[in-house]
Structures are given as C-alpha cells and as structure tokens.
C-alpha cells in the first residue's frame, strides 16, 4: 500500500439524508483539524443529470474554510451507481437508492439484513440473483474507486452501508461504522436483538422492559436500529462519554463493541455562517429575519419547534399543534409553519432567547438540544427516536414527553411544563450543566477530543 509515511487519509461515505450526512460532514471536518486528510465519497446515480446532493456537499465544504484554528481542506470523490431501469423508471432511481436504505433501516428490523430483503420489498422480485445483483451494484463502484485511487488508511461508512465492508475487504482497508444514534439507543437495540422481548408481548401497544440493560426502561414495540456486520473495525458515535457513561460502558463491555465517542460534532461549526447554513442553505435570512426577532426577546423565553428533516404531518395535525402552542401562551419559532423550508437550527438553538425545544428526538436534534443546554418536549415519530426520548426524559431528566394522541391538549400541557414552574427550572439547570459538559468534551483534553486522538493514533499504528 505504501502508506507508512503518508498523511493519514480517511474516506467518509455518508448516506445522503440530512440526519446522516450533516454529522458525517462535521466529523470529516473534525478529523481534518487533527491533520487527517478527508475525502467524502458521494454516490450519484448514472443518467441522472443533476445529482442533487453533490452541490449541497460541495457548498458546505467550500463555505467551511476553518474549524477551530485549523484550515479545512476536504476532497470529494463521486462514485456512480448504475441506473436500475429494470426495477424503476429512471427518474425514480436516485430516490430509489436512498429509499432502499430507509427501508432497511426502519423496517427490516434485523441487524444482519441482506439486500434480498431490499429487492423483495421494492421490486417484488425474488431470489438470490436479484440480491446478488443489487449487492454488486452497490459495492462495485466503490471497489472500482479503490482500485484506481491511492488507498485510504480507513473508511468511515454510514451504518446503512454494510456493503462497504465487502467493497474494501480485498484491499485490507479497515471500516469504521458511523452509528448515527445515541449510545443508549445503540445498546438498547443490541439487547432487544439478543433477547427479543418484543416476542413476549401480545401487541404493539403493550410495553416491555429492555432486558439486560441499565434502568427499568419500558418501551413499546420498537424496530431494532440495524448495525452492519461485526466484521467492521469499530463504531464511531456522535455522542460524548459523560452524557451516557452507563450505556457507553454497556456498549463496550456487554455488547462487545469497539467504540469511539467523538461528539457533539456540531460544535465544530464555530461561526454564524457555518451554523446558519449547516446542511442546506437556510430558507430565511440568518442575519436579519430570525436573529433580529430573537434579539428582541428575553432570555429563555422562546420555544423552538422542529420535527427534523423527514416528518410529514397532515394539515389537521398541524392545525392542532398550532392551537396547542398558541394555548400554551409561549412565544415560539416553528419550522414547518412559521419557517418554511430549512431552518438554521443550531444557530437558533444557541441563541440565548431560546429556552426550550420541542423535538422529534432524531439523534442530531436531541444532541444539538443538549449541547445548547436546553430542556425539551419530546415527540418521537419513528424508530430509534423512541429510545432517544427515554434517554432524555428518564435518564437525563431534561425532557417532558408529549405522550398522547390529543395533540392540542398534550402539547399545551407539555410546553407549559417545559417553560413554567419549579420543575422547569430544575430541568433547565440540568440541561445547562450537560451543555457545558458537551463543550468541555470537545475541547483539548476533553473526552471526545481524547477519543478522536486515540482513534487517529490507533489508525496510524495499524499502518506503521
Ligand atoms: N435541520 C436543520 N434545519 C431544519 C431541519 C433540520 O438544520 O430545518 C438539521 C438539524 O439541525 C439536524 C438534522 O437536520 O442536524 C436532522 O437530523 P435528526 O437526526 O435530528 O433528524 P432526522 O431529520 O434524521 O429525522
């Protein structure tokens, strides 16, 4: 490989959904601050004239010239997936490739899913030949890239890209899986996968206790958070040790995972421009519209509401939520109704006028809320968001669950609980403390800083 004296070079292979891509881009920036060369591998689909995600990533990288004191330089390499005319019309192919991953992540349930499940689900076709074809389709382009490129020392691949391991196997390149959820959720998923307690309950509405797990955590039927095969070198998580130490220990000692906690990675965005346009161009003018309004508000007086990048409420539900917010008597910023399009979330959360966050418990949003020192109203919508809710409300005790189907009343009650009274004060003070811990973790000498250093040293040693 001839890589001994080379600068450490890491490929990052993100899944192109905001909740996966944004933290991986931040992570790549973090690596570069330690002298690592980073290359982002962007999948595009043949015959799609404008691969939509490429400009988003290019812009983010172009804009991010610095991270802390370091100058950032990140390369991009595209790999082309062939169009799958046999399965779907051409226009749907890009959607299809992304869709596959959502399907396997949220609906297959097994950590050892195989592409045949994807083929069957999407095309209705059956049998090994279809599965093999799809496997090959996914990993061959990466294998080809590696064939023609100086080999990186390591690949950080999204958890929904298990085929990366096949593509890299013959080159002996270690694969680190980026698990884009909390350690709590990742280890709960392992326990549920091992002990299948969901089989013991009579229906999805009957809760069960997560077995062999710290705390009496009751959960309703939840799909596992799939993890790719154990052949990977280790797992990187966007969390910090002090946030969930019990579960971090559980994950390594009981689940037997080799893991590094290097977050919150969002903290590498230092200035307003980077925070404001993280992920996509913000749909509002970050300098004036939103910030000017917030600047006129008292400290901790505004509630920020956002249900992530994927949620889809019906109009009648939106109306009920709006009525609940109105009835709570609080001032709020709501992504979806008040801000249409993409909000500068991290910038808003960090504003001192914001005092509470209504979240769907996507892990990035949850951790961004923690980092901003904010108590939360939790409203999980699917998959591992239900685990993250438990972490926020029952373990960290900085959240109030909405926990009901009558949106209006439930949201009014939860938001009042979040913003008014003694308990709200206690939650806010705990949240502030966690926010300070998050910032310390990423500073020189902090736990996440040290984990990243240890990982880099280990990767260097592998090649010496
Ligand atoms: N986000 C944002 N503006 C928006 C919506 C989302 O900046 O209007 C960001 C948010 O800060 C987070 C990511 O998109 O980093 C969403 O990831 P998360 O895991 O919270 O939820 P998902 O979208 O995957 O359900």
From TrEMBL:
Listed GO MF terms: UDP-glucosyltransferase activity
Signal peptide: none
Keywords tagged on the record: Coiled coil, Glycosyltransferase, Transferase
Coiled-coil residue windows: 404-444
EC number: 2.4.1.-
Matches recorded under InterPro entries: UDP_glucos_trans (IPR002213), UDP_glycos_trans_CS (IPR035595)
Residues passing through the membrane, by range: none
PANTHER family linked: GLYCOSYLTRANSFERASE, SCOPOLETIN GLUCOSYLTRANSFERASE-LIKE
Protein's recorded name: Glycosyltransferase
């Amino acid at each position: 490989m001839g890589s001994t004296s080379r600068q450490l070079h890491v490929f990052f292979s993100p899944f192109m959904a905001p909740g996966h891509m944004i933290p991986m881009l931040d992570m790549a920036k973090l690596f570069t601050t330690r002298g690592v060369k980073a290359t982002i591998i962007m999948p595009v689909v043949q015959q799609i004239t404008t691969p939509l995600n490429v400009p988003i990533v290019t812009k983010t990288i172009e804009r991010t010239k610095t991270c802390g004191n370091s100058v950032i330089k990140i390369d991009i390499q595209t790999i082309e997936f062939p169009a799958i005319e046999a399965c779907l019309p051409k226009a749907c192919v890009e959607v299809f490739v992304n869709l596959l991953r959502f399907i396997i992540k949220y609906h297959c349930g097994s950590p050892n899913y195989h592409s045949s499940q994807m083929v069957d689900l999407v095309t209705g076709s059956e049998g090994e030949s279809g599965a093999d074809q799809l496997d090959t389709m996914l990993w061959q382009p990466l294998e080809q890239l590696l064939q023609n490129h100086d080999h990186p020392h390591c690949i950080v691949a999204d958890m929904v890209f298990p085929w990366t391991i096949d593509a890299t196997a013959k080159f002996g390149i270690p694969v680190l899986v980026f698990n884009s959820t909390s350690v709590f959720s990742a280890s709960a998923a392992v326990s549920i996968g091992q002990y299948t307690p969901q089989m013991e309950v009579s229906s999805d509405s009957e809760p069960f206790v997560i077995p062999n797990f710290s705390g009496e955590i009751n959960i309703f039927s939840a799909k596992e958070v799939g993890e790719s095969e154990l052949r990977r070198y280790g797992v990187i998580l966007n969390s910090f040790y002090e946030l969930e130490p019990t579960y971090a220990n559980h994950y390594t000692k009981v689940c037997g995972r080799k893991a590094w906690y290097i977050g919150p990675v969002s903290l590498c965005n230092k200035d307003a421009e980077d925070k404001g346009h993280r992920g996509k161009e913000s749909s509002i003018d970050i300098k004036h519209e939103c910030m000017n309004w917030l600047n006129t508000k008292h400290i901790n007086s505004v509630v920020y509401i956002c249900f992530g990048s994927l949620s889809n409420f019906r109009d009648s539900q939106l109306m009920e939520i709006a009525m609940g917010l109105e009835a709570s008597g609080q001032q709020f910023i709501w992504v979806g109704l008040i801000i249409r399009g993409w909000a500068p979330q991290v910038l808003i959360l960090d504003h001192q006028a914001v005092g509470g966050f209504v979240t769907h418990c996507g892990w990035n949003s949850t951790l961004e809320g923690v980092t901003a020192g904010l108590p939360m109203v939790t409203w999980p919508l699917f998959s591992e968001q239900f685990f993250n809710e438990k972490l926020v409300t029952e373990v960290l005790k900085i959240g109030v669950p909405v926990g009901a189907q009558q949106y209006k009343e439930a949201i009014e009650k939860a938001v009042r609980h979040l913003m008014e009274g003694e308990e709200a004060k206690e939650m806010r003070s705990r949240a502030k403390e966690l926010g300070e811990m998050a910032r310390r973790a990423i500073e020189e000498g902090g736990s996440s800083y040290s984990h990243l250093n240890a990982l880099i040293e280990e990767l260097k040693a592998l090649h010496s």
